[in-house]
Amino acid sequence: MMYRVMCLKNPLEYFNLKPTEKLAFAFMNITKDLAYDIGVSKFQETV
């Protein structure tokens, strides 16, 4: 889903958000270390 949002020309408009609002993504898991290892590190590799 994050990849799809990143491909949008104007994600704020797509989600009917105001220009002053921001999108945020959260990487959640049972522990902080797992969230980083599984979510953040794989995202960084992909980008």
Task: Set down the secondary structure blueprint.
Blueprint: H1 2-7, H2 11-14, H3 32-46
Question: Care to describe what's here?
Answer:
The chain has helices at residues 2-7, 11-14, 32-46. It contains 3 helices and no strands. By secondary structure, the chain is mainly α. The relative contact order is 0.14. The model has no long low-confidence stretch (mean pLDDT 83).
Overall geometry comes to elongated
Q: Return residue spans where pLDDT drops below 50 for at least 5 consecutive residues.
A: none
Rounded to the nearest angstrom, the distance between the terminal CA atoms is 14 Å
**Fraction of residues in β-strands:** under 5%
The helix/strand class is mainly alpha
Query: How many individual helices?
Result: 3
SSE succession? HHH
Biggest β-sheet description: none
Number of strands: 0
Look at the structure and give the mean pLDDT.
83
Whole-angstrom Rg: 13 Å
Please give the domain count: 1
Work out the helicity level. Answer: 40-55%
Keywords:
single chain, 47 residues, mainly alpha, 53% helix, elongated
Summarize the structure.
The protein is mainly α and 47 residues long.
